[in-house]
Amino acid sequence: SDLAFDDCPENIQYGEISASSVPDQVELFNNFFTNVESSSFSTEDESSKNIFEKFKEQHGFRSGFSCQTGIHEFISYINNALGQKLITLALFIDLRKAFDLIDSLVLLLKLFHYGYDNNSLGLMSYYFNNSSQIVKLQNTHSKPSKLKYGVRQGSVFGPLLFLIFINDLPLCILRAFIELFADDTTLAKSRKKLEKILKDFDKKIEDLN
C-alpha cells in the first residue's frame, strides 16, 4: 500500500537522504571521474585542471591529507601567533547533514567553471535529475519523492562531488586562517586586541552566509 509523507506522525522526520547502490553508479563513475585528470577538461587554463589540488585548505577525502595534517597546520598557526604575542580566536563550523544540503544546480555550475565539457555535465545533470527516494516502514512504502538536493551517501564518488562543491569556501574568507576537513571548517584570526578580532569575525561570518 501507499503511504503519503503527510500521513506520517509529526515526531517522525524523514529528511531527504541521498543514497545510491553500487550497480547504479558504476557506469557514471567510469565515464565521469576517470576524466578528472584527463583531457575531458575543455579549458586551456592549467590552473583549473586539477580541481582537487587547487585548494590546499582541504584535508578530507584527499590522498596525503588527514586529521593530523589539519591539526598540525592549526597548531603551527597558533604557535606562530604566540611567538608574536598575539591573541588567537578560533571558530569551528560543522554543517549539519552537509551531504544532503548540496544544490545540484550550483554543483553543475561549479563543474562548468572548472572546465568540464558538455558530455560530462549532461551525464551529471541526468544523474541528479533522475533520483528519488522512498521511505519503507515495515511493509508500507511511501510514494516516490524527487530529490532536489544532496550528493549520494554511500556512493563511490559522493565525497568527490562534495569536495568540488565546498572546496572554494576559503575564497570567501580573506586575511584569516581557514582549513577544511570535508564539511568541518576551522576559522582563526590573530590580532593584538580581542575586540578587533570579534569585529573581524562578525564580518567573516556575514561573508560565509
From TrEMBL:
InterPro entries: DNA/RNA_pol_sf, RT_dom. Residues 1-209 form the Reverse transcriptase domain. Pfam families: RVT_1. It comes from the Eukaryota. This is Reverse transcriptase domain-containing protein.
